[in-house]
Structures are given as structure tokens and as C-alpha cells.
């Protein structure tokens, strides 16, 4: 396996003293787990933040072997991780992607949609500008994985309808792509929902 492509960092975990295992979403190969030497070091730790867009050079010597990856930062979401609502949205979108998608199954529409969602989160002046896009990403993920969708697209101007759609989608996500997760991924969505409820009209 050898792939050099743009990738979105969806999750990382420590490996040994200084390395990390990163889960990267690519358009060509889908979700890929890869070993990143020095991933916990001063230089690479801010590069491997969930939500960052990177250029990844991913190589594996044999099928079934954990690939190695070299990572270069393209776009950082770091500045928005100190803002509670954008940070909660980025955390949920990337955690959902990392937990729900099987590895090495390409979903080009999901890569494009997640990249667009992350851009919307970082350029919109408020959550009203990206919450419907987040719902659209959740709907697309369900459809890409072959699950039914219980809601239609709400009117972005009707905040109560947006939150109602958000609430109706939650059980479908928990029951279907996240049903077998060992960790409580939905806690990130619950945290985001609590913050969205504080917006005027919610």
C-alpha cells in the first residue's frame, strides 16, 4: 500500500512514548489507521488535532500491516478549538467519522462533505450558519452506510425545527452505525446539543 493524498485527521491515540496512531479520512482509501512516528512530539502534536486537513504519505510493506504515515499540515482547525461551540462541533463530526466508518472503504462524498462542514464551522459567525450542514453530514453518513434517515432538511431560519431534527437524528446514529462502539461516542453529540440549546430561540 502506498498512498499520498489529502486527509482529515479524525482521531489519534498515543502509542509508546512518542508515537501516535492516527485515523485519517481520505477520499481514495476511506478511513485509514496509521502509525505516526513522533506524533506526540512538539512538532506533530498540533498537526494531529482532529479536524485538521493534512497531506498524508501512507505506506505499508504488506497487506494487514499497520501502515506508517508522514504528515504535513495543510489547514489547521486549532484556532477554533478554544471556542466552545466550534470545538464541540469539530469533536463530534470527527469522532462520529472515526467510530462509524469501516477502514479502507472509500466514501468520497463523505470526505468532501466533512471537509466542507469543517470549513463552514470555521468561517460562519455563529452555529446557525453550520448546524444544518452538520445535520446534512450525519444524514449523508447514514445513507452511505445503508441506513434509513428519519428526518428531512429543516428550514435553517427555523431554529426550533433545526433542533428538533437534531434530536430525531440522534437515536438513528446511536442505534445504527454507533451501536457496537466500545466508547460513548454519543456523549460528544450530547455536549454539542446542550451548547446549541443555549442559542436564542433554542
TrEMBL record:
It holds the Pfam family RecO_N. Keywords: DNA damage, DNA recombination, DNA repair. Residues 1-70 form the DNA replication/recombination mediator RecO N-terminal domain. The keyword Aminoacyl-tRNA synthetase does not apply. One of its GO terms (biological process) is double-strand break repair. It comes from the Bacteria. The keyword DNA damage applies. One of its GO terms (cellular component) is bacterial nucleoid. Belongs to the RecO family. This is DNA repair protein RecO. It comes from Novosphingobium colocasiae.
